[in-house]
Amino acid sequence: MSVRTGDDGFKYITTPLSDADVESLKAGDRVRISGVLYTARDAAHGRLLPLIEKGEPLPIDVKGAIIYYTGPTPPQPGQVIGAIGPTTASRMDKFTPALLKLGLKATIGKGYRGQAVKDALQQFKGIYFGTVGGAGALLSRHITKAEFVAYEDLGTEGIRRLEVHEFPAIVLNDCHGGDLYQDGQKQFARE
Predict the structure, then answer these.
(1) Fewer CB within 10 Å, N side or C side of the chain?
(2) Taking 80 as the threshold, does the pLDDT of residue 191 lie above it?
């Protein structure tokens, strides 16, 4: 298993993820991710979906992978990558179930996910992580290597392979139906 709990209360995750890794996580868990993430936004997803529909190979292996919805800025001298904050995940909702069916294990973004995605997370054992918007410069410090792997012509929306060390996130939706947004709303409605 590539998930362990640290003395600081964080769950430390190493990619690629297995079903058992995903099943061990619950909405509200704070995590630190090490290993590989792929970046992809709207334009890249728009190119992946026709490949999936035709049964053609994808330019990346999504089995056990995590896709981070981000469009990083260019790096400054001495940096691996520029600011790398999350984008709104719901814009990728129409693509996500098909990728989960192919073995994608997690996505990272900000904001709510639609019911079809939450259902697919349960069906295919996936996780939706959130990370802090507006903190892209701080998040970039967790990236140790970045390289384009597909669709470089899309610029910031192309697919990059990132090597990350202890990238911070929180489980927003788990494979058990847990939803941190709904849980939080219920908690504050009672107070």
Answers:
(1) C
(2) no
